[in-house]
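Ticket 4471: requesting a sanity check on a complex prediction with 5-phosphoarabinonic acid. Repro inputs:
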Amino acid sequence: MIDLDYTNLHKINPKHGLSENEPESKNELLPKFIEKVHSHEQGFYTNIDDSKTIQKIQDFAKTTRAKYSSIIILGIGGSALGSKCLIQGLCHLFQNKLKTSSAPNVHIIDNIDPVLINNLEDIIEYSKTLFIVISKSGSTPETITQYLYFRQKTNDKKLNPKNHFVFITDPEKGFLRETAEKDCITIFNIPKNTAGRFSALTAVGLLPALLAEIDINRIISGAKIMRDKFLNENFNENLPFKLAVIQYLLYEKGKNIDVLMPYSQKLTGLSEWYRQLLAESLGKKGKGITPIRALGATDQHSQLQLYNEGPNDKLIIFMEVEKTDTEITIPNPFPEKKELKFLEKNITFNNLMKIEKVAAEISLTKNDRPNITIKVDSLKEETLGESLMMFMGATAFLGELLQVNAFNQPGVEHTKKIIKQSLLK
Ligand code: PA5
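Returned structure tokens:
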């Protein structure tokens, strides 16, 4: 379950926060906005009903998983960050798979740095590797060049491409689709109505997750719970709308930077995914919210000083996981030491993390810095599904509030064109 606590906004100077009634001032817009969202005919909240594709993903993973020791995702932007978020959020932090599973390791290669490619080759065995090439357009220079490189390598080793590649791409056209048809490579579709950053709950995010043995049905059922909220015309029930309105009202008060700061190592992938979602969806027509990705408690010693006493232009969105399966008590073998007195109550790392977050929250509130908390009861498949849907829904509503098209990315496409032209010179 996910909840939103924005009471700190009422405790600070209203110039920088929100009075109790302010968020509800926009509630009459909600029914109209839901209609507008429907009129865009976007798939991000309907893809989870596509049981045929979900079954195809499951059948493929069942017959495939045991054959490989490494799964390599080749993709960039929205074609990589959804799977990164799910794998980081649900797998072992150092093994890229579930702690107890014999599943292959999943690595996401979303850059063209030759050192990254070279180091990856040090740890994979080609004959036991499956490359999942993800590109909606099928022509993104970074992804296609990665594919060509690894395809050449597998060709040199006389490996059959249909056993070592899977493509996730446009349902009708593009270089990847043509290649798949020619070489009998398995292909999954990215629905036409789904932009990359909104595709985490399609094969783009779900196939890599399932290959890492994550239960994708549970992710989908969490996403469906939040989808019902997203389409609910009652302001108090509609968490994505509430979040969007808070972000928007504070944007109007000059808070044009939003910091997402989870107090959970496993949510770093979610922050990275959200950074793209917010930036690429809303950064248009001279408008937009600049996203910052932060991590508690780590960034209390890196950025918190700025948030507390620098320009008052940010909304801090904390994320807090209430229950974790792992509990570790901090030993205190030196009870007589004055410097370690703060440990005399037998505290756990879990408590320490909570206390650190509350301390950051108190200091920010005292300094009139707007901050809210997204509360997650526990980090599991369902709550990650809920989180993805909550942020996608809120971003769609922010598009309406800011009057920009949240679903295109002309600036990104323009740069892709320039790259290709420069290579021809
Ligand atoms: O969100 C988006 O649409 C973009 O970030 C794309 O995902 C990114 O540019 C990669 O494009 P493609 O999937 O066509 O390779």
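Notes from triage: The chain has a mean pLDDT of 95. Leaving this open until the requester confirms.
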